[in-house]
Automatic annotation (TrEMBL), chain A:
Entry-linked Gene3D superfamilies: Acyl-CoA dehydrogenase/oxidase, N-terminal domain (1.10.540.10), Butyryl-CoA Dehydrogenase, subunit A, domain 2 (2.40.110.10), Butyryl-CoA Dehydrogenase, subunit A, domain 3 (1.20.140.10)
Leader sequence residues: none
Keywords: FAD, Flavoprotein, Oxidoreductase
Any Pfam family hit: Acyl-CoA_dh_M
Organism: Alloalcanivorax gelatiniphagus
SUPFAM superfamilies associated with the record: Acyl-CoA dehydrogenase C-terminal domain-like, Acyl-CoA dehydrogenase NM domain-like
Protein name: Acyl-CoA dehydrogenase
Domain Acyl-CoA dehydrogenase/oxidase C-terminal: 281-449
InterPro entries: Acyl-CoA_dh-like_C_dom, Acyl-CoA_Oxase/DH_mid-dom, Acyl-CoA_Oxase/DH_mid-dom_sf, AcylCo_DH-like_C, AcylCo_DH/oxidase_C, AcylCoA_DH/ox_N, AcylCoA_DH/ox_N_sf, AcylCoA_DH/oxidase_NM_dom_sf
Database matches in PANTHER family: ACYL-COA DEHYDROGENASE, BROAD-SPECIFICITY LINEAR ACYL-COA DEHYDROGENASE FADE5
The UniProt record lists the keyword Oxidoreductase: yes
Ranges of residues in domain Acyl-CoA dehydrogenase/oxidase N-terminal: 39-157
Automatic annotation (TrEMBL), chain B:
Species per Swiss-Prot/TrEMBL record: Alloalcanivorax gelatiniphagus
InterPro entries linked: Acyl-CoA_dh-like_C_dom (IPR025878), Acyl-CoA_Oxase/DH_mid-dom (IPR006091), Acyl-CoA_Oxase/DH_mid-dom_sf (IPR046373), AcylCo_DH-like_C (IPR036250), AcylCo_DH/oxidase_C (IPR009075), AcylCoA_DH/ox_N (IPR013786), AcylCoA_DH/ox_N_sf (IPR037069), AcylCoA_DH/oxidase_NM_dom_sf (IPR009100)
Keywords: FAD, Flavoprotein, Oxidoreductase
All copies of domain Acyl-CoA dehydrogenase/oxidase N-terminal, residue ranges: 41-158
Protein name in the entry: Acyl-CoA dehydrogenase
Lineage of origin: Bacteria, Pseudomonadati, Pseudomonadota, Gammaproteobacteria, Oceanospirillales
Gene3D superfamilies for this protein: Acyl-CoA dehydrogenase/oxidase, N-terminal domain (1.10.540.10), Butyryl-CoA Dehydrogenase, subunit A, domain 2 (2.40.110.10), Butyryl-CoA Dehydrogenase, subunit A, domain 3 (1.20.140.10)
Acyl-CoA dehydrogenase/oxidase C-terminal domain location: 282-452
Ranges for domain Acetyl-CoA dehydrogenase-like C-terminal: 467-586
Pfam families membership: Acyl-CoA_dh_1, Acyl-CoA_dh_C, Acyl-CoA_dh_M, Acyl-CoA_dh_N
C-alpha cells in the first residue's frame, strides 16, 4: 500500500473553481476568508494527515483499542498525534470565536476532514464526534452550559460523544429506555445503557462530554418523549477544570470488523449527573438541527475510502506486471505489461476515480450549502439552501458511502490475492468502509428519509427545486459542442427523475408500503443522477479553463475524460434501479414471514 | 447470531423435482447405483454432519486463526478432531474414483454437499476442497504407480493435497513463473522455488501432505508452454507406503488475511525437494486445466454457501428484531415495535438474497449435471454438448456466484444494522470469508475474460448460440405451463437481450481488440442474470405443480426475481454497448 497523498489539486479544483468559494464567501460577507487562506490550510492539513495520521492507520488496525477495567487505551501513537492536532489548533477551526474558535465556515474545513479521514478514519472519529456535541451545545445550550463546556471542547482538550443507541433500539429511537430523574438542584440523574458509542471512553482527552438521549418521568411515549442531556465524565469544577468523577463508565468495547482503533463503547449511566439541554421532550428535534451536518461527516467517509482504494489500486496497477496488452506489448523489455493496460483494470480504476471525485464534489457542495444555511443574509436564500441540503444530505450520506464501499472493493480486487492480505492495507480499507453504510442512519433509513420525508412530504417540491437547477445548467451548456454528449444524458435522466418520482407518488397513495419498497433503489437512482450532474458541471468548468488557456491541460482533459466514462459506463446503472422500482409490490409484501426459509 | 440449517427441502426440490437428476444418473453406468433414495439419505447425513460438527467451529476458528511456529502450522482448536471424524465417516472419499477407494458420487450431488460445507465452515471446507483438486488431477494424469501410492491415502483422509501455482511475482500470469525442476538419474526431479498462497500447504490434521507443483524443466520453452506438473510429498513414502523421510519442502510463513482465518494460507519453500512428474513434460498447465472446471465451480459454491448462511441468519434476525412500525399499521400489537421483516426495504434485502441463492443453487446443480455428462456419458453427442455447456457456464458460475455471494453477505450484514459490524454476531465474518472467493481460482476479472474472450468471441459465439437454443427450446416446450404465464414475456425479453448484446459484443470486438476485456465483467453479469431467469422459470414451472407453502413461496420469490432483479440486465447491456472508448482514452499518467 502506497502512502496516502492528499489530492490537493482536485480539492482546489472543486473548492475554488467549480464551487467558486471566493465568490461564495464574498456573498456571505466573510471578508477574511478566501482561497488564499484556504490553500494554506489545505497544505498544512495535507502535511499533518500524511505525516502524522497515515503512518498510524495500519498499526492502529492491527493493535486496536484496549479495554481494562473501564479504562480504554488507544493504539500506540494515537494520543500523541491527537496532542499535536490540538496544539496545531485544528479542532477550533469551525468553533465559535466567543469560545476560542476560529469561526470559519464548514466549507473551509471540509477538505481537512476528508484528508484526516482518508489518512486514518479510526483516528479522525475522535475529533469528529466532538462536532456533534459542540453543535448541540452551541445551538441549544444555556450561556452557563456554553461557558462550562465550549472552550475546552473547542480547543480539543475535551472531546464529546453522542449517546443515542441502546441494545434494543437503533433506527427506532422511540422505544429507548434510558431514564432521567430530576434532582432538587435542577440537575438530573441519568440511568441506562447506551451502546455503539464512538469515543465513549479513551485516553486522549482529560474529559469526555456525553450528549445523552433519555426520558423524563411521565414523558409521552415514542419519539415525542425524548429529552437531551449533557453528562460529563468528570463534573466541572467551576473554574474550567475537571472535578469529581461522574457515574458514567465504559462497560466494554466492541470487537468489530473494522475501524478497530476507534473505541466503540458500551456506556453505563448509573445515576449519573446530567443537565437538560434544550426543551423537555424535544430532544430529537434538537438532534435534527445538526443531523444534516453529522450525516455529511459520514458521507466524507465514502469519499475517503474511494480515494484510498483508488490511490492504492492505481499505484499497484502501474507497477504490477502481468500479461500483455491486447493491442500489443506496452512494456516490451519487461516480462509482461503493467496491469493498467488491461481494460478491466481501467474499468475498476476509473469507477473508483469517478466515485471519489464525484463524491467529493457532492460532499463539498453540501458543505457550501451548509454555510448558506447558517450564514446567508437573505431569508429566502437561507431557506432555499436549507431545503436543498435537506434533499442532498441523505443522498450524499447513503450513496457516497455505498459507492465508497464498492470502490474500496475494487482496490482489493486490483491487487488480486495480495488484496486479501492484511500487510498490503487494501482489505482494511474495505473493513473500515463497511461501517459507513450502517451507522449515522443505515442506507435504508437514509433512503426512507429521502423518499418519504424529503420528497413525498414536500409533494416533490424539494426535488423540483433541485431538478430545476440541473435543468438550467443543461440549458446553459447544451449548445457547447464539446460538452453535448455529457449534457444530453444529464438532461434526459433529470427529466426522468421527476417522472419516476411522480409515478412512485401515485402508487404510494394506494399502498403505503410502496415507499419503503422503492426507497433504496430510488436513493441509488437519485445518487447516480446527482453525480452525473456534478460530473457534467466539473467537465464544463474544465472545458471553460481549457478554452481560456488556463494551463494545466492534462488535469482538465482527464476530468473531461472521466466524465465521459461516468456517463457511458456508470450512469446506465440508474436504469436498473428504475426497473426494480417499477417491479410489482406484491412479490415483495405477500410472502408470509414464516415462509422465508424452509 | 448466525444460524444455519442445511436447506434440504430446496436442495431436493432442485435436484429431484426440477432436474430429475436421478434419471441422468441411471442413464450412465458410472453413476447407475446412485438412486434418489441414496442421494436423499446422503444429503440428510451431510446436513447433520455440517450442522453438528463443522458449524460450531466456525466463529471460534475465525477468532483463533491458524498458528505458525518454526515451520509448523497448528489449526484452530477442534479442527483436527473434526477432520478425523469427517474422514472416518468417509466424507473425504465422496467424489473419489472407486478403483482407489473413492465413493464415486456424481458432481451434481457433490455441489450440494460442498454448498453445505461452505455455509457451515468455509475455512474448514477448503482443506478437503484442495485435496479434491489434487486427486482429480492425479486420477486424470498421473502414472499408475503414483495413483496406487497416493490416491487411497488421499481418499481416506489420512493425507491431504495442495495445488502450488502462484509465485510472489505471478498469479494470473503463470507464464512468467520461476520454480525449477531438475531431473535426477532415477527418473525423479529436484524442485526448487517459492510458492505463495498455498491453501493447506502445511497443517496438523493429516500424516502427510501431497503438493502438486508447477515448475519449469531446464530448457523449457518460455511462457505458459514451458510449465510441467510435479507431485511433491511432504514426507517421501517408505517401502510400505507410509510417510518416511522428510522432503525438502517447508512452510516459510502463513499469511495474515482478511478472512478464512481458520484456513492456513502458506508460503511454501521448495529446496531441492524430490518430486515426480505428472503427465507429459511442458504440459503442466493443460493437466491442471482438466480439473479447472471442477475447482472453479467449487470455489463459486463458496460464494453460494456463504450467501445461504448469511440469508438464513438475516431472515431469523428480521423476524425477531423489533424496530419501527409497519407502514400499513401495527402488526405486533403486544410488542413495543414490529419485527423488521414487516418493512418493505428489509423484505427487499431478504428476497434479493434468497432469489440469488436459490437461482445459484439451481445453476450449480445444472452445471454439476453437465459435468457428470461430460465425464460419464457414453453418448458422444450428449457428452460433447455437455462439455460445451460446461466450458461456457463455468466461468459464469465461479464469478457470478461469488460476486452475488459477496453482495448477499453484505446485505445480510446490513439487515443486522450496527450489530452486523460486531464480530460476535458472526455476520461480518461471512463478508470477510467470501471476499477471497472473488479473487482466487482465477479472479472474477479473469473469469469474465475467459467467458467473453475464449468462450464467446474466439469461437464466434458458437457456445452461446447453442445455449440460447436450449433456452428457447425450453420456453417453447413449456409455453403452456402454469407458473410461466406471469413471467414469460420478461423471460423472452431477457433471452433476446442476451442474444442482441452478444451480437453487439462480437461486432465491436471485430473492430477493437479492447472491446472484449472492456465489457467482460458486465457481459458475465448480464449472462448470469439471464441464466438465473431461465432457471427461476424452470423452478416456477415445477413449483406450480405443488399445492403447498413451499411451492407458493417459490412462485413469489421467482416473481420477485423477474420484477426486481432482472431489470439490472438492461442496464448492463447499455454499459456494454457503450464500448471501450471511454475506458481506454485516459493516458496512464493522467489517472
Amino acid at each position: 500500500m502506497p502512502e496516502y497523498k492528499a489530492p490537493l489539486r482536485d480539492m482546489r479544483f472543486v473548492l475554488n473553481e467549480v464551487l467558486d468559494l471566493d465568490g461564495h464567501y464574498a456573498k456571505l460577507g466573510l471578508e477574511e476568508v478566501n482561497s488564499e487562506l484556504l490553500n494554506a490550510f489545505l497544505d498544512e492539513g495535507a502535511k499533518f494527515s500524511e505525516n502524522e495520521l497515515a503512518p498510524l492507520n495500519r498499526s492502529g488496525d492491527e493493535e486496536g483499542c484496549h479495554f481494562e477495567d473501564g479504562v480504554v487505551t488507544t493504539p500506540k501513537g494515537f494520543k500523541e498525534a491527537y496532542a499535536k492536532y490540538v496544539e496545531g489548533g485544528w479542532p477550533a477551526i469551525n468553533g465559535d470565536p466567543e469560545f476560542g474558535g476560529q469561526g470559519l465556515p464548514g466549507s473551509a474545513s471540509i477538505a481537512i476532514s476528508e484528508m484526516t479521514g482518508t489518512a486514518n478514519w479510526s483516528w479522525s472519529m475522535y475529533p469528529g464526534l466532538s462536532h456533534g456535541a459542540v453543535a448541540t451545545i452551541e445551538e441549544h445550550g444555556t450561556d452557563q452550559q456554553k461557558n462550562a463546556y465550549l472552550p475546552k471542547l473547542t480547543s480539543g482538550e475535551w472531546t464529546g460523544t453522542m449517546c443515542l443507541t441502546e441494545p434494543h433500539c437503533g433506527s427506532d429511537l422511540g422505544i429507548l429506555k434510558t431514564k432521567a430523574e430530576p434532582n432538587a438542584d435542577g440537575s438530573y440523574s441519568i440511568t441506562g445503557t447506551k451502546i455503539f458509542i464512538s469515543a465513549g471512553e479513551h485516553d486522549m482527552a482529560e474529559n469526555i462530554v456525553h450528549i445523552v438521549l433519555a426520558r423524563l418521568p411521565d414523558a409521552p411515549k415514542g419519539t415525542k418523549g425524548i429529552s437531551l442531556f449533557i453528562v460529563p465524565k468528570f463534573l466541572t469544577d467551576g473554574n474550567g477544570g475537571v472535578g469529581e468523577r461522574n457515574a458514567v463508565a465504559c462497560g466494554s468495547i466492541e470487537h468489530k470488523m473494522g475501524i478497530k482503533a476507534s473505541a466503540t463503547c458500551v456506556m453505563n449511566f448509573d445515576g449519573a449527573t446530567g443537565y437538560l439541554i434544550g426543551p423537555e421532550n424535544k430532544g430529537l428535534n434538537c438532534m435534527f438541527t445538526f443531523m444534516n451536518f453529522a450525516r455529511l461527516g459520514t458521507a466524507i467517509q465514502g469519499v475517503a475510502h474511494a480515494e484510498l482504494g483508488f490511490q492504492g489500486g492505481l499505484a499497484y496497477a502501474r507497477e504490477r506486471l502481468a500479461m500483455r496488452s491486447l493491442s500489443g506489448p506496452k512494456n516490451p523489455d519487461g516480462p509482461a505489461d503493467p496491469i493498467i493496460v488491461h481494460p478491466d483494470v481501467r474499468r475498476m480504476l476509473l469507477t473508483s476515480k469517478a466515485f471519489a471525485e464525484g463524491g467529493r464534489a457532492l460532499v463539498y457542495l453540501c458543505a457550501q450549502l451548509g454555510d448558506q444555511v447558517k450564514l446567508a443574509r437573505d431569508d429566502a436564500e437561507r431557506e432555499q439552501a436549507h431545503d436543498l441540503m435537506a434533499l442532498l444530505t441523505p443522498i450524499a450520506k447513503a450513496f457516497v458511502t455505498e459507492v465508497g464501499l464498492e470502490a474500496a472493493n475494487h482496490g482489493v480486487q486490483i491487487y488480486g490475492g495480495h488484496g486479501f492480505i492484511r500487510e498490503w492495507g487494501m482489505e482494511q480499507n474495505v473493513r473500515d468502509a463497511r461501517i459507513s453504510t450502517l451507522y449515522e442512519g443505515t442506507t435504508g433509513i437514509q433512503a426512507l428519509d429521502l423518499l418519504g420525508r424529503k420528497v413525498m412530504m414536500t409533494q416533490g417540491q424539494a426535488l423540483r427545486n433541485f431538478t430545476k437547477i440541473v435543468h438550467k445548467f443543461c440549458e446553459a451548456h447544451g449548445d457547447n459542442g464539446e460538452l453535448k454528449e455529457l449534457i444530453e444524458p444529464v438532461a434526459r435522466y433529470n427529466r426522468e427523475w421527476g417522472e419516476l418520482t411522480q409515478a412512485i407518488a401515485m402508487q404510494a397513495m394506494q399502498n403505503p408500503d410502496y415507499v419503503g419498497a422503492a426507497s433504496v433503489d430510488y436513493l441509488m437512482y437519485s445518487g447516480y443522477v446527482t453525480l452525473a450532474y456534478l460530473w457534467a458541471r466539473m467537465a464544463a468548468k474544465a472545458q471553460e479553463q481549457l478554452d481560456a488557456g488556463a494551463g494545466d491541460e492534462d488535469f482538465y482533459k482527464a476530468k473531461i475524460s472521466t466524465a465521459r466514462f461516468y456517463m457511458k459506463r456508470i450512469l446506465p446503472r440508474a436504469a436498473g434501479h428504475k426497473g426494480a422500482i417499477e417491479g410489482g409490490l406484491d412479490c415483495l409484501m405477500e410472502l408470509d414471514q414464516e415462509h422465508f426459509a424452509f | 447470531m448466525a444460524t444455519y440449517k442445511a436447506p434440504l427441502e430446496d436442495m431436493r426440490f432442485i435436484l429431484n423435482d426440477v432436474f430429475q437428476a436421478d434419471r441422468l444418473w441411471a442413464s450412465m453406468p458410472a453413476t447407475a447405483e446412485v438412486t434418489r433414495d441414496l442421494s436423499d439419505a446422503i444429503l440428510d447425513e451431510a446436513g447433520k454432519m455440517v450442522e453438528n460438527l463443522l458449524f460450531p467451529l466456525n466463529r471460534d476458528g475465525d477468532e483463533e486463526g491458524c498458528h505458525f511456529d518454526d515451520g509448523q502450522v497448528t489449526t484452530p482448536k477442534g479442527f483436527k478432531e473434526a477432520f478425523k471424524t469427517y474422514a472416518e465417516n468417509g466424507w473425504t472419499a465422496f467424489s473419489g474414483n472407486p478403483e482407489f477407494g473413492g465413493q464415486g458420487m456424481p458432481k451434481s450431488l457433490a455441489v450440494l454437499f460442498e454448498e453445505m460445507m461452505h455455509s457451515a465452515n468455509s475455512s474448514f471446507a477448503l482443506y478437503p476442497a484442495l485435496t479434491n483438486g489434487a486427486t482429480l488431477c492425479l486420477d486424470a494424469h498421473a502414472s499408475e504407480d503414483l495413483k496406487q501410492a497416493y490416491l487411497p491415502k488421499l481418499y481416506s483422509g489420512e493425507w491431504s493435497g495442495t495445488m502450488c501455482l502462484t509465485e510472489p511475482h505471478c498469479g494470473t500470469d503463470l507464464g512468467i513463473m520461476r520454480s525449477k525442476a531438475v531431473p535426477n538419474d532415477d527418473g525423479s526431479f529436484n524442485i526448487s522455488g517459492t510458492k505463495i498462497f498455498i491453501t493447506g500447504g502445511e497443517h496438523d490434521m493429516v500424516d502427510n501432505i501431497i503438493h502438486l507443483v508447477l515448475a519449469k524443466l531446464p530448457d523449457a520453452p518460455a511462457g505458459s508452454k514451458g510449465i510441467s506438473l510435479f507431485l511433491v510429498p511432504k514426507f517421501l513414502p517408505d517401502a510400505d507406503g507410509n510417510p518416511g523421510e522428510r522432503n525438502g519442502v517447508a512452510a516459510g510463513s502463513i499469511e495474515h488475511k482478511m478472512g478464512i482465518k481458520g484456513s492456513a494460507t502458506c508460503v511454501m519453500n521448495f529446496d531441492d525437494a524430490k518430486g515426480w512428474i505428472i503427465g507429459e513434460p511442458n504440459q503442466g498447465l493443460a493437466a491442471m486445466f482438466t480439473m479447472m472446471n471442477y475447482e472453479r465451480l467449487s470455489i463459486g459454491i463458496q460464494g453460494l454457501g456463504l450467501g445461504e448462511v448469511s440469508y438464513q441468519s438475516a431472515a431469523d434476525y428480521a423476524r425477531e428484531r423489533l424496530q419501527g412500525r409497519a407502514a400499513t399499521g401495527v402488526q405486533n400489537e403486544g410488542g413495543n415495535a414490529d419485527p423488521i421483516i414487516v418493512h418493505g426495504d428489509v423484505r427487499r434485502m431478504l428476497l434479493t438474497m434468497r432469489a440469488l441463492n436459490e437461482g445459484g443453487r439451481a445453476l450449480s446443480t445444472y452445471v454439476g449435471m453437465e459435468l457428470d455428462k461430460a465425464k460419464f456419458s457414453e453418448n458422444d453427442a450428449e457428452q460433447k454438448a455437455a462439455q460445451d455447456r460446461v466450458a461456457l457456464l463455468t466461468p459464469i458460475a465461479k464469478a457470478f456466484f461469488t460476486d452475488r455471494g459477496f453482495d448477499t453477505t453484505v446485505i445480510g450484514q446490513q439487515v443486522f444494522g450496527g450489530h452486523g459490524y460486531v464480530r460476535e454476531w458472526g455476520m461480518e465474518q461471512f463478508v470477510r470469508d467470501c471476499r477471497i472467493s472473488q479473487i482466487y481460482e482465477g479472479t472474477n476479472g479473469i473469469q469474465a475474460l475467459d467467458l467473453a474472450g475464449r468462450k464467446v468471441t474466439r469461437n464466434g459465439g458458437k457456445y452461446v448460440d447453442a445455449f440460447l437454443a436450449d433456452l428457447r427450446g425450453w420456453i417453447d416446450d413449456n409455453a403452456n405451463e402454469q407458473g410461466l404465464d406471469s413471467i414469460r414475456e420478461r423471460l423472452v425479453a431477457a433471452v433476446d437481450l442476451l442474444e442482441s448484446t452478444t451480437a453487439e459484443l462480437l461486432r465491436q470486438a471485430g473492430d477493437n481488440p479492447d472491446m472484449v476485456n472492456a465489457s467482460a465483467v458486465e457481459y458475465l453479469d448480464l449472462f448470469g442474470y439471464v441464466t438465473y431467469a431461465w432457471l427461476w422459470a424452470r423452478m416456477m414451472v415445477t413449483a406450480a405443480q405443488r399445492d403447498d407453502d413451499f411451492g407458493r413461496a417459490k412462485l413469489t420469490v421467482g416473481r420477485f426475481y423477474f420484477e426486481r432483479l432482472l431489470p439490472r440486465a438492461g442496464a448492463l447491456a447499455e454499459q456494454i454497448k457503450a464500448g471501450p472508448a471511454t475506458m481506454m482514452s485516459l493516458e496512464q499518467d493522467l489517472f
